[in-house]
Specification:
Length: about 300
């Protein structure tokens, strides 16, 4: 990719006990995108993020962050990254303002109260700036983690399970915050267990399993290429058995016998194989009365579950 802000080549990590967490990972993240990294527990998501951020030393391979090798030019690479960890680790008796300001100082940045104010306002934390962290709700504490990660004006933001344990309303508020950050030019990489989060927000999806990148694809292309569609045919009268004219369509019949389910690849149907037309013609020829039709497109979750099963 011509404008990659993160480039990972041949990245592997084997821990002291012999467990191989990453296997020859190649990945590029484009500047200004929201990239979602999906994978089951233990797939290597957090290890990959930690290796890019310089928190874990890879066994082999190279990571470039905005053009800087994250080993040879660690400081330059790391200051371009903001990391929001999964765990809520905050200084319980410190104020919101102080903890965010202190995080900026850790990166050697001079004080900039105007920037800290902008960050706190954008995360709806301004009214809480003088509150001690121990007094905040779980959702507010998570916002403070994001504010700390943004305190030194990074170009890249890693969000490791950003909405784990927060309610649905707050999750949607957080999605809006992430979109606003992307609109300001921040590149966002998030790991998530909530697949609707990736479906709602991501420009591209990467799937990791057993330490290997299974695929990387634009979200809409992924759903189009790997998605399946289901056509549910509601009948006027239940069928005791399928007529021979319908034998070639691999139909599933419900228990009552008054619905037929036809599954097909969306890409094939788009190419015009005539599957639905042929099915409706066969139903007509067999004298089966059709009451109604419903279609359903497989979700990103369906695709993800199928992919992980395939590569298990």
């Amino acid at each position: 990719m011509s404008d990659s802000i993160i480039r990972i080549e041949g990245l592997s990590k084997t821990f002291a006990g012999g467990f191989q967490a990453l296997r020859q990972v190649d990945l590029s993240i484009q500047r200004g995108e929201i990239f979602a990294l999906l994978g089951p527990n233990g797939a290597g998501k957090t290890t990959l993020i930690s290796a890019v951020c310089g928190l874990v030393s890879p066994t082999q391979g190279t990571v470039w962050v905005d053009g800087f090798d994250n080993v040879k030019a660690y400081r330059a690479a790391r200051e371009r990254i903001g990391l929001v960890p999964q765990e809520l680790t905050n200084e319980a008796f410190e104020t919101v303002w102080n903890t965010v300001s202190f995080s900026r100082g850790l990166f050697g940045k001079p004080p900039n109260p105007k920037h800290i104010e902008r960050v706190l306002r954008s995360l709806t934390l301004w009214e809480k700036r003088n509150n001690r962290l121990i007094t905040l709700s779980g959702g507010m504490k998570r916002r403070v983690l994001i504010a700390k990660a943004l305190s030194h004006e990074p170009r890249i933001l890693f969000l490791d399970e950003p909405t784990a344990g927060v309610d649905v309303e707050l999750r949607r508020e957080m999605w809006n915050v992430v979109r606003e950050l992307r609109d300001q030019g921040v590149t966002i990489i998030l790991t998530t267990h909530y697949i609707e989060e990736a479906e709602e927000m991501a420009d591209r999806i990467g799937v990791i399993n057993h330490g290997e990148i299974v695929l990387v694809e634009e979200k809409n292309v992924l759903i189009e290429k790997l998605g399946r569609k289901q056509l549910t045919v509601q009948l006027f009268e239940p069928l005791e058995a399928l007529p021979p004219e319908l034998a070639t369509f691999a139909l599933i019949q419900n228990e009552a016998g008054d619905e037929l389910i036809y599954s097909y690849e969306s890409a094939i149907q788009k190419a015009g194989d005539g599957g639905i037309s042929a099915l409706l013609g066969a139903l007509n020829k067999a004298g089966v009365g059709v009451k109604d039709l419903h279609t359903r497109q497989s979700s990103l979750e369906d695709i993800f579950v199928d992919l992980v099963k395939e590569r298990a």
